[in-house]
Amino acid sequence: MEKVVIEKMDFSYPKKALLFEGLDLELSRGKVVGLLGKNGAGKSTLMRLMAGLLKPTKGVVLCDGEMAFDREPHFLDQLMFIPEQIALPDHLKVGEYAKVYRDFYLGFDEIRIQHLLSDFQLGLKERVSNLSYGQQKKLQIAIGLSTRAKLILLDEPTNGLDIPSKTAFRKLISANIQEDQLVVISTHQIKDIDHLIDQVVILEEGKIKLQADLDALEEAFVFGQGAVAPLDAIYTETHLLGARYIAKSQGESEGSPDLEMLFQAVMEGRIQGQYLSTSNPVMQ
């Protein structure tokens, strides 16, 4: 999977107002992309459009130049979509359920699934019906990573996971993603994808307000904190111990971008546009 390209796309549900209008977006392989937005911004719908489960009202969603909605067999072999709500068969054991996916994905990695199930503390002989919601999520994530699909779409994958499992999730995503894969993670729990993603896409009311590589953001801005914010700060949050802020970079850097602060700055219109490593940053 080289890239996903969305061009001039409109979409609305029947008898509903347009959710997306003239949407353009390009995502390339080798990235872990965080898709952020408030509830109702269109994150889950955008995921389903990329998976070919919904058809654009206008425009196209292309995966390596082919219509996602056509859902050709070779496209499905390279696609793994894990929705927020999962319906799993009650009568199967964990090992049997994993075997179902092995039969559908040509690149299914038998060794990887064994390691991932062990890392998530899931036994092969446990019945799926006996798993908690969080355990079911971990099972689906383990299977998704084992398919070696080139396009992996994860919708709210950390919902239902406890803190140790969220830590394990971040480590396993980092350790099991290869350069020929594109992973898109939709979440409203911004802290869960800290130090995991390479690129962030922020949606608001069906529009892309920001698409940025984190290393490009680090070059363009300072995400700092201190007793007071500098006068030229673009965005400021005050608290009892001082202030956190975003300011334009003058060549200095104070660490990785703070995703929660970035999200609030975008919601307030302080930062918008594209900041991509392969192109000049554009601020609108």
Automatic annotation (TrEMBL):
GO molecular function, one term: ATP binding
UniProt-listed SUPFAM superfamilies: P-loop containing nucleoside triphosphate hydrolases
Keyword Nucleotide-binding: yes
Alphabetized Gene3D superfamilies for the sequence: P-loop containing nucleotide triphosphate hydrolases
Annotated ABC transporter domain residues: 4-230
Keyword field: ATP-binding, Nucleotide-binding
Pfam families: ABC_tran (PF00005)
Keyword rRNA-binding belongs to the record: no
Protein name stated in the entry: ABC transporter ATP-binding protein
